[in-house]
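re the bet — no i am not wrong, look at it urself. input seq straight from the record:
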Amino acid sequence: MNLVSVCHSDLFAAGATAHVPGAIMTAFNFPLLRPEIVLEPRYMPGLYGDQLQYVAFDPVTAAECWIPEAEGHIMRALQQLKGPLNRTAIAGYIKLHFDAEIQEPAVDACLARLGELQWLTTTEPAAAIRDAYWETRREVQRGLKLQRLKTSVKRMRKEVPYYRSLLERTHLTEEDIHELGDLRKFPRLSKAQLREHFDTLHPDSLADHQDWWGDLVWRSSSGSSGARTQTLAGVENYSYTLFETLGVLASPRPSRQCLIIPPACTGATCHMDTAIPYENRILFGNTLLMNAFRNATTVSDARMEEYVEEIERFQPVGLMGAGSYMYPLARYIKRTKRRVPKLRFIHLHVEVCSRIHRRLLEEVFDCPVEGCYVSSEMGFAAVECSCGTYHAGPGVQLEVLVGNQPAQPGQLGRLVATTLTAQNRLTPLLRYELGDLAIAAQEPCTCSPLGHLDTVGVIQGRASECIRSVEGRIITPRILDDALTDGSWCANIAYYCLIQQELSRYILEVVPEDREVSIDESGIKTALHRLLGESAEIEIKLREEISPTLPAGRYRLCYSLLDDSLPELP
């Protein structure tokens, strides 16, 4: 069995509520566990010696999870006992086979949680089991998130001067939150307000008990949506929010990854390509910051060979960062047939990654390539599933808004974030305007293992990087890339950037993959005319290189020279 650690801590945690009609009774007709459920024992090293846990897998719902020892013993009894018996038989089975004592309340609690997982014997068809499983998990997750939201708003009101004053003026408290949609009652926080009120957006305890907070870091945004912002966080905030968001995808073993992102984002190098020694670029013992380079379209083979040698030395299980900066590495490995350690994942963030780059990463590294939504202000917030939909982690509430109303399914809206985790306690964010756009999800997603997490939709990129069609329709970076890469005409494109010069005039800059081979200009223009309008004037310019167009060294797939504030999306 290929185990993905999907720990159902929300269902097996102490204090989780459950109600399974008919499950809590004096007599049972065994076996009670569905026959498809696979249950295997594992010994996990612990602080006090090896500890027994179980691995469980349900092929019907694709649910996989770690089960604590006591609940695993109960599940064994539910599998093995036969006929009409009561709880005493369960306790007796466990005593005889495992020499352990189990009390009736523990049996009842385990049965309730197994009912939530849809793992108890039933005559329902597989489709009904899957639907009930995901809906129950979503209900549990919504309940936990609602409680986190109320706790977070209470903490902001009591601890943070800015929010204390704001909530007093608006006569709002956490008691006004009865469902997640009640967030709309609260004012939003703009980037300008974050900069203006920065000194009052930290908890009083920062001054009163600074030594309790441990090591702190100042985090600066890239400035890709305007002037840069700063936030304050604990030194482990990045890794903690990563775990909260991607934890359901993670292996039970500690992760180990290389980070490949633009130079202004890493802090490891400057734009003069000054290299920092290998040993000084290892963070938390498990993340290697690769020495950055200024221009991904002109990086040398010598630099890529250095990357390969450092990857061989570090032995990562994954890569994280910007697809445009990973692309030269994948191209070099494919051309030279160099071998690198087998990867378990590639997580893309920093920018909207073109499908041109993503396809090569998938081909060369032969592992899952997942998009992640990350911001410097809050850390990791959402992850892309196999269906292409982004799911928000439990530490953040993401809204897709048109005005102050939720975007309708399939509608384009602005992303607003509220931080729910104590790990963002140093600069908490309440309805923070991120400057990014998303298309709201059409319906709940039942992909495994992310289906229980809030469905956001499809992240589209920065509002400041949008262009318009001839008719004035908003074209996001993601919409453009989907259109431009949906055919054989993009086969010889390595990098591109579409610049809107005037309402109906566009320039497409292209760096060819092979400069000795012509590009399909006719096919490219046909695809762009379908997107932008038949009357669009499109000029294609071949370039030796395209330099990053943002201060942080990020590449943009498109941008407009028009003065336009997207009035349809206030």
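see?? Residues 1-25, 266-273 have pLDDT under 50 and may be disordered. told u. also The domain at 139-251+344-463 is CATH 3.40.50.12780 (Rossmann fold). so pay up
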